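Work package 3, deliverable 3.1, input record:
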Amino acid sequence: MNATQDTQPLSLAPAAAALLAGGIGSVALGLLTVLAEASEPIRLALRFYAPAGPLSGKTTVAVLVWLASWAILRGVWNKKEVDFGKVANLAFILLALGLIGTFPPFFLLFAAE
Amino acid sequence: MEISNRELWTVLHGMAFGALFLLAFGGGLAGLYSLRPAWITAEGLRERMIRLKVGMWLMALVAWGTVLSGTYIVYPWYRAAPPEGTTELGAYPRSLLLSSESTNLWHEFGMEWKEHVGWIAPIAATVAAAVVMMYGERLASLPAVRRAVLWFFVAAFATAGVAGLFGALINKVAPVR
């Protein structure tokens, strides 16, 4: 480690922002998967690239939500101290919710008749 | 000995990108896990960090290559609808799987899970790579951050593993040709 790194105050906010944004991106994908299953208009609206169907829209929107939330969190938490443990736990909860939302036995529960 | 354009892309998507990601995971996991001041010298830490940063970004890049090639190149071939009246469904894997009760779960569970959960891998891998890049050697003295990155990295591997496993199995039952 060099001297510059050692003397700089080390903020955990950038790491917290990256992790939380990852959780938000994951839960966005899960939520969009459920919504596309539950609503035909949403499913049709998410067909950004017809040959790939609604998967193209779900993933594009989830990636945009992830990147936007990352940029916003970086800006909001700039030079601030955050409770890293709490933020990391929240990020893992959101990541887990995203995994649940993309699990077929779960999202098929919401399938439109 | 011939290979069609579709088969070539399937191999690139599954074996070149997917397998490279899964194989590289071991190196990244060992690098992150052993990133402790008590275990390595300052010089060793510097040397290891360059490798770790390059490896993590390479993995993230490969994960993006896998999902993008899968979603926009291979998947449209998989889900293409056969013309009305078609009885030979070999060229339409999704329809072939759904045509029989003995195979429909491959699509309804396997493919549906794979196509969605696989997208969490590049997001989680990029998050892990970005944090490693931001903190570098200082990560060794931040156990909470290192552990959180490690878990995101494991999540990237697990989700890529599910997608890779079902991709390989489905391509056995109903190959994209």
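Chain B has one domain: 5-27+38-80+89-173.
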